[in-house]
Design goal:
By secondary structure, this protein is of the alpha/beta class. It folds into 2 domains: about 120 residues, Rossmann fold; about 100 residues, Winged helix-like DNA-binding domain superfamily/Winged helix DNA-binding domain (Arc Repressor Mutant, subunit A, Orthogonal Bundle), CATH 1.10.10.10. The radius of gyration is 18 Å and the shape is globular.
């Protein structure tokens, strides 16, 4: 990981921008700011930040609009920081390309932790033949899955689901996104499929499937595979 990351904060509240600037500069981030949607897009294109923190309520346009435009030219992590906390708003943001979502008022420590997770994910090289997260590994060429040195037997669907999680470790994946990726667009409402297969993955990889530490439920939204420090 490089020494100094660039972060762009997009929020129309000067107090929030000031708080975030102090927090990020204290850990050696280079911080840029924008208070409107139009400035956000220009700053993102010109500054080429490593991560974007984006509010949904901006004076000249919506944060969702900014997110969609930014996704046309960059895949940097985007973390939504918003007072809106409905499942509808969260799902719309995540399905539009956001990597994570935190509601205001927020805990600064949690925000910094989420940012570190997002940046670690960027540094995972997903086009390598073997994907790893913690002690779980998946060899794309041989389709061999291991936990530590133990080979794990998975069905084709379980393998595809694990591959999707490994490629997006640390990110919240909505029910609809996962269902479309694994089963196709006609299954986007069939959440019972998902519950069954998540349960199967937990039985294989979790020490206690009833108290999961790897595949976490984001209530009403979807699931997240924890990005391991190992």
């Amino acid at each position: 990981m490089k020494n100094k990351f660039k972060i762009l904060i997009v929020d129309d509240e000067i107090q929030i921008r000031r708080l975030l600037r102090i927090s990020f500069e204290s850990i050696n981030f280079e911080v840029f700011e924008a208070d409107t949607a139009s400035k956000a897009i220009v700053e993102c294109a010109n500054r080429k930040p490593d991560l974007l923190i984006l509010d949904l309520g901006l004076p000249d346009d919506t944060g969702i609009s900014v997110l969609k435009k930014v996704r046309e030219f960059t895949n940097i992590p985007v973390l939504i920081l918003s007072v809106r906390n409905s499942e509808k708003d969260i799902i719309e943001a995540l399905d539009s390309g956001a990597d994570d979502y935190i509601t205001k008022p927020f805990n600064t420590g949690e925000l910094l932790a989420r940012v570190r997770v997002a940046l670690r994910h960027v540094n995972m090289v997903n086009n390598e033949p073997v994907l790893r997260n913690g002690n779980i590994s998946l060899d794309v060429s041989t389709r061999i899955v291991k936990q530590g040195k133990l080979e794990c037997k998975l069905t084709s669907t379980e393998y595809s689901l694990l591959l999707l999680f490994l490629k997006n470790a640390g990110k919240v994946l909505t029910h609809q996104f996962i269902l479309k990726e694994i089963w196709g667009m006609y299954y986007s409402d069939e959440t019972q499929y998902l519950r069954i297969y998540i349960s199967n993955l937990r039985k294989v990889f979790e020490k206690d499937p009833k108290s999961p530490k790897i595949f976490l439920t984001e209530q009403g939204i979807g699931y997240r595979m924890i990005l391991s420090e190992e």
